[in-house]
Amino acid sequence: MNIVVLGWKHENHIVESWRPDTVEGLRQLGHRVTATLPNDETTVADIRHAARDADMLLWLKDTPKSPDREVRDCLRELESRGVVTVGLHMDLFHGLSPRQDEIGKTAWWSCQYVFTADGGPRDWRGVNHRWFPPAFGTRYLGLAPTVERYRHQAVFVGRPIPRLHGRHRSELLAWAEKTFGAGYALYGTRRDRKVWGWDLNRLYASADIVLGDSADAPYYWSDRIPRTLGRGGILAHPYVEGMDEQGFTDETLIRFPRGEFDTILDRYTSMSDREIRDMRDAAITLIGERHTWKAAMERVLKEVGLCG
Predict the structure, then answer these.
(1) pTM, to two decimals
(2) Start-end ranges of CATH 3.40.50.2000 in the chain?
(3) Which of 4-18, 167-181, 247-261 has the lowest mean pLDDT?
(4) SS3 of 287, please?
(5) What does the DSSP 8-state code read for residue 106?
(6) What is the mean pLDDT of residues 159-187?
(7) Number of helical H runs and strand E runs in the chain
């Protein structure tokens, strides 16, 4: 099939990003991505021209240069010619302003199908919404050798954002600092502490426990779950409704009731070396079989009727 991607961003400064992974997943399935259009430079005329022979327009959210009304009219015109319009984004929308206020109002929300990582029984205001759990690219799939400088009892990669994470993430990090002391390390908050690509694989392979957290919402988690498990990290993450059906069980990660941090240490110290190795292997296998971008985009194409 011929697929046009709208919402491309120039992200050469980022080693790992879901937007290029989306395109790579489509190409791994054998489809042609004939144009990637950056929103801030793209007009309705550009979209019409690029999608003139397309089977699908995949819009990775954000806002094109043309007025919203013109973009809506363009989508309807493309659909009348048989082009399937699909919106895709990895954000949580419900419970967060202004994201929730935009649902159903802007042109992106009027695509024939809209996929987000925000699942569960929520009011989508007439949008044809589908749940899309975050996926993982194949470039960094697998367990790296351990590295001495990354040997920690517990690590966290990222930073607290109170508007999104509330108090839970800050409380988790405070617990880790108190519990593990010098055995705890925080990465990603300063330029000299950022870890990307295969260095992140080495960090997750070398650390005993990788602490994880996502905004508190059923059927939602960030891509830190597939990005950690796909690297074989022993991930500790609050239990979220919806995990079981995606294979994120107690065999693939350490799940704990939100806020009950001592459960993390209790579970880890109860595991034998063999059980730890098995968890790393099971996590990589799960991501490789069910949660790569190739597998995720194949599910999208099936749901929109473009493949059997």
Answers:
(1) 0.94
(2) 148-290
(3) 4-18
(4) helix
(5) S
(6) 89
(7) 11, 11
DSSP string covering 153-172, please? SEEEES---HHHHTTHHHHH
Would you state the pLDDT for residue 192? 59
How far apart (Å, rounded) are the C-alpha atoms in residues 98 and 11? 25
Residue 191, pLDDT score: 60
b/e string for 74-84 if b means 16 or more Cβ within 10 A? bbeebeeeebb
Q: How far is CA 209 from CA 17, 48, 101, 292, in A?
A: 24, 49, 38, 23
Fold classified for 2-135+292-303: Rossmann fold (3.40.50)
Q: CB neighbours of 191 closer than 8 A, spacing ≥ 6?
A: none
CA 33 to chain centre: 21
Burial 103-131 (b: 16+ CB within 10 A, else e): beeebbbbbbbbbbbbbeebebeebebbe
**Interacting residues of 264 by C-beta distance below 8 A, sequence separation 6+:** 209, 211, 236, 254, 256
What's the CATH number of domain 148-290, 3.40.50.2000, 3.40.720.10, 2.170.190.11, 3.20.20.60?
3.40.50.2000
Give the chain's mean pLDDT: 93
- What is the dihedral sign for C-alpha 129, 25, 248, 159? negative
Report pLDDT for 240: 97
* pLDDT confidence of residue 15: 67
pLDDT greater at residue 97 or residue 282: 282
Q: The tokens of 124 are what? A: 């989508």
Summarised one tens digit per residue, pLDDT across range 115-149 is 999 998 899 999 999 999 999 999 999 999 999 99
Intervals of CATH 3.40.50.2300 along the chain:
2-135+292-303
